[in-house]
Write a structure and sequence with these properties.
The complex is a heterodimer of chains A (about 375) and B (about 100). Chain A is an alpha/beta fold and about 375 residues long. Chain A has 14 helices and eight strands. In chain A, a hairpin with a 7-residue loop joins strand 4 and strand 5. The N terminus and C terminus of chain B are likely disordered. Classes of the chains: A alpha/beta (about 375), B mainly alpha (about 100).
């Protein structure tokens, strides 16, 4: 009896995923729109490349996902505070004469974004364009191989994202998780939270494929992963059903993960001590000496451009108070930089509500194994203090 | 403006973008443009990886039959029931369901 109910749960998860995941048709429309944008931009930046990044191409997209684009013009780091803004302003001026562009907005975050909306028939797609933030290309590539490694990864992420959205904890603007952070949490759980490992550490097993030294133009995007010696035993890992993985995920973050002690590191394939990640800038900070503190290698936190948006500009990473607070609650290491993708959770009230949400969801699903009931949840009640 | 006088102050508007090779030696920022046009198009191929690793019906009865039948039909013709980026390792899957 419990087993058959478990089967129903797994199938429900799969069905839900199929209902919402990005269709081929939607991807084709996005690629077409990207080509139109490139045609308009290329006279200004003739050799540039307009990469589709984020959920539209990392395997974790659903049909209502926006399209994140990364305009690459150089292999060197582009100063995001000044030069990227210049580039995006040039593009804004160029696109304003295009009939298919309805409106544009330059968003000044740590990674500045040009947000573009379109005239019909593309009025259902919003584009977030960044300038030369190449880490977005690398982590799109990495996540795509994670999403393709095992068939259960994508449906699990679809449901976790939807649950978090309905719970009101998938919103960086309300100091909770970005979708990118949620994906990393699922991958981390499948790397080291299950009885039999479901996902390997791809950066360790395939160091050359996923090295952050590789020129993004030569990333291998066509070949399947060659077999290597790792500690994944498919015959073991496949014994866990999709439904069990969802319950296990909620259990892991409700009861096993120690938020005070642990940090999530996909790059290392395990939990690490927070203290090891949340290192302060090396330079001594005098009370007024913030300007001398080196920025963490990536103020650009990830492909998920939303990461930067919820954080007002005056929360400079070089401000020691912000530096501490960005590691306060949940620590998720970005796989190619050493920044914390969950830095937007700096509110203790929200953090408490998030932990409570995991506990509730776990006991709910454990007891009833009913996906519909899990998704019929009420949003958390926590007022943010706008720190 | 202040922002406009950083990277591009060496150029009149738009003027610097036409001969990228020359910039290498000229700019005070040592800034040079690189050709990413093909790389960006190549990157779209990740979509094929996603398609090729999407099982069409992991719970269906047909799925449990021979691997011969496990080649699904799809608009692209590229869908496969074998669902792993690690094709060789994950033989005909025996997903417990």
């Amino acid at each position: 009896e419990p087993l058959s109910r478990m089967d129903v749960l797994s199938e429900k998860i799969w069905d839900y995923h199929n209902k919402v995941s990005q269709t081929d048709e939607m991807l084709q429309r996005k690629l077409h729109l990207r080509d139109m944008l490139y045609t308009a931009i290329s006279p200004v930046f003739p050799l540039s490349g307009l990469y589709v990044v984020g959920s539209s191409l990392n395997g974790f997209g659903n049909n209502s996902s926006d399209m994140d684009l990364c305009l690459m013009i150089t292999n060197k780091d582009l100063d995001q505070k000044n030069d990227a803004v210049v580039v995006l302003n040039l593009i804004l001026s160029t696109l304003q004469y295009e009939k298919f562009v309805a409106s544009q907005k330059l968003i000044l975050a740590k990674v500045p974004i040009l947000r573009i909306k379109f005239a019909a028939p593309f009025d259902d797609i919003t584009v977030d364009l960044n300038a030369n933030n190449s880490v977005a290309i690398r982590n799109t590539h990495l996540l795509c191989y994670y999403s393709s490694y095992d068939w259960r990864v994508r449906p699990l992420v679809s449901v976790v994202k939807e649950w978090a959205k309905r719970k009101g904890i998938n919103d960086a603007n309300k100091s909770s998780f970005t979708s990118y952070s949620l994906v990393l949490m699922v991958i981390h759980y499948l790397q080291c939270g299950t009885e039999a490992r479901v996902l390997p550490n791809l950066q360790q097993s395939y160091p050359t494929r996923f090295s952050n030294k590789v020129d993004v133009r030569t990333l291998n995007v066509t070949m399947p992963l060659e077999p290597v010696q790792d500690d994944i035993d498919p015959s073991l890992s496949e014994n866990t059903t999709l439904g069990e993985l969802l319950i296990g995920f909620l259990d892991y973050y409700a009861n096993e993960f120690n938020y005070d002690r642990d940090a999530i590191s996909i790059r290392q394939g395990k939990r690490v001590e927070r203290a090891a990640l949340a290192v302060r800038p090396k330079v001594h900070l005098s009370s007024e000496g913030e300007k001398e503190a080196p920025l963490p290698s990536s103020s650009a936190s990830s492909s998920s451009v939303h990461n930067g948006i919820g954080v007002p500009m005056h929360h400079s990473l070089s401000n020691p108070h912000f530096w501490r607070s960005q590691w306060r609650c949940v620590c998720i290491e970005e796989p190619f930089t050493n920044s914390n993708t969950a830095h937007s959770i700096y509110d203790e009230m929200v953090f408490g509500a998030i932990k409570e949400a995991f506990r509730e969801a776990h006991s709910e699903l454990q007891d009833n194994r009913d996906l519909d009931r899990l998704l019929e949840c009420e949003p958390i009640k926590a007022s943010t203090t706008n720190a | 403006s202040g922002a406009m006088s950083t990277l591009f102050n060496a150029y009149p508007q738009y003027g610097g973008f036409h001969q990228p090779a020359a910039h290498h030696h000229q700019t005070q920022h040592d800034f040079h443009f690189e050709n990413h046009a093909e790389g960006a198009k190549r990157f779209d191929n990740l979509a094929n990886l996603i398609r090729a690793t999407t099982p069409t019906d992991p719970f269906g009865a047909k799925f449990l039959k021979s691997t011969e039948k496990s080649q699904a039909t799809s608009p692209t013709g590229s869908r496969s029931r074998a669902s792993s980026a690690k094709e060789h390792k994950q033989a005909p899957p025996a997903w417990k369901m």
